Amino acid sequence: MTVTFPPGFLWGAATAAYQIEGAAREGGRTPSIWDTFSHTPGKVLAGDTGDVAADHFHRYRDDVALMAELGLDSYRFSVSWPRVQPTGRGPADRRGLDFYRRLVDELLAHGIKPMLTLYHWDLPQELEDAGGWPARDTAHRFAEYAKLVADALGDRVEMWTTLNEPWCSAFLGYGSGQHAPGIQDDLAALRAAHHLNLAHGLGAQALRAALPPRRQIAIALNPAVVRPLTPSPEDADAARRIDALANRVFSGPLLQGAYPADLVEDTAAITDWSFVRDGDLAEIGRVPLDLLGLNYYAPTVVSAASPDGPRAGGGKDGHGTGHSPWPAAGSVDFHQPPGETTAMEWTVDATGLRDVLLRYTEEAPGVPLLVTENGAAYDDKPGPNGEVHDPDRVRYLHGHLTALAEAVAAGADVRGYYLWSLLDNFEWSFGYSKRFGAVYVDYESQARVPKTSARWYAEAARTGTLPEPPPA
Ligand code: FCB
User: Quick check: helix, strand or coil at residue 256?
Assistant: First the structure.
């Protein structure tokens, strides 16, 4: 079967500042919560930090040349808040903004469209010390930071994303503690979720006011594709509960102007939600989304908790920290979906991507969609001739791009796809142990080697048609 994409479809790749830049102490940059967290023993595998990462801060020219060689139409990157506004308040540091000006100019010179994300998890540590996302003021600080970046780059960047995966910031950062700042407090996680929603709303208004006309404003969510283990009403209710905590806690205020009633009820023992003040919901939805970014990796299977403890394959999903990221969901067990898995132990299931695109086609009528992240980690190693063959990743990409095309055929308006990730990089609490790149990075020499998947993807981007993947 030939899978073809429309002309103008954006073939992209994505990265994030803390995962690739390094140069952690250069040009006035201060620590973010991820510097503090990664330098705290026991938080990140093997004690890895983003101090050097893929050294993209110094190698961005070569990296853009590589993107051009691969024929990418667009590059999704994030701006490091503590590089641009080191204390999280007050004026910008020109040196930080200059780095992003140079990067964007380099992209434009190669005909690559920048897609800028303002926040991919690196909160300035000073703002965490002042209360972090559970504190309302952080949303106002974010809007101020958004204006600084818009003033500097609005003339040359068309596509703007406020937040990347606010679910992770709120529920892994303040709930399970698997991510920075490593706090385990259900109430703090729910407050953080609301203040992230508010930050999106205030940030989008600041962008709209500061940007020239016809700039596009987006958010990148990571909706969970929640599936009940069995058709029983108990398992359906477990799926409903997790869907509220994973998805509707964001899509409710963003798209429907309200928090879902069942979410408020489910979490009543933790909070009465009085941190949502009058007028907040109007602020969150004031600027309609021009684009909705969706990140998808794998589905989530849940059931009602068994009274005898987790069944085989079930668990409380503590994300390794012993504290669940799901507030008030002790009644739910999580199950590994059947099928082959990636190096993250995430099940490969492309139907989830189709489902999520069709769901948001209904929930956000008229809003064009982008797949802002999709990809897989495998244990890639260079062969004797130095080449890196990653047929599993090629099959993963082929399957998911085919699912995307199916969603388009069924009516989804999907404008582009960003492979996660351009380069191998710092995979958060897994450090450098997980390689998601289409391009291999030798962290000793910082040499870049495009893997087989990068060549395959370049061919897809060039022809607008998916080449056949290698046989399994
Ligand atoms: C997403 C993150 C991204 C990367 C991928 C694997 O949750 O946005 O930074 O870590 O997962």
Answer: helix
H or E element that contains 10: strand 10-14
Q: How many domains does the chain have?
A: 1
For residue 416, pLDDT over 70 is answered with yes
Note whether residue 470 is domain-resident. Answer: no
Residues forming a β-bridge with 371 = 294, 417
d(CA 258, CA 249): 9
Pocket test for ligand 1, best of 80, 167, 295 (most atoms within 8 A of CB): 295
pTM higher than the cut 0.85: yes
| 295 C-alpha to ligand 1 centroid (Å) | 8
**What is d(CA 264, CA 199) in angstroms, rounded to the nearest whole number?**
20
CATH number for position 56: 3.20.20.80
Q: What is the mean pLDDT of residues 215-223?
A: 98
Instruction: Kindly state whether residue 471 falls inside one of the protein's structural domains.
Output: no
Ligand 1 atom index nearest CA of 434 = 6
N-to-C CA span, the chain: 17
Q: Is residue 302 part of a domain?
A: yes
User: Range of 369's domain?
Assistant: 10-463
What pLDDT, in 10s, does the model give residues 228-237?
A: 999 999 999 9
Q: What are the catalytic residues?
A: 165, 373
The pairs formed by 137-143 with CB atoms below 8 angstroms and a separation of 24 or more are: 138/195, 138/199, 139/195, 139/196, 139/198, 139/199, 139/202, 140/202, 141/88, 141/89, 142/118, 142/199, 142/202, 142/203, 143/199, 143/202, 143/203, 143/205, 143/206
**Residue 3 domain flag:** no
Quote the ligand 1 centre to 430 CA distance (angstroms).
Answer: 11
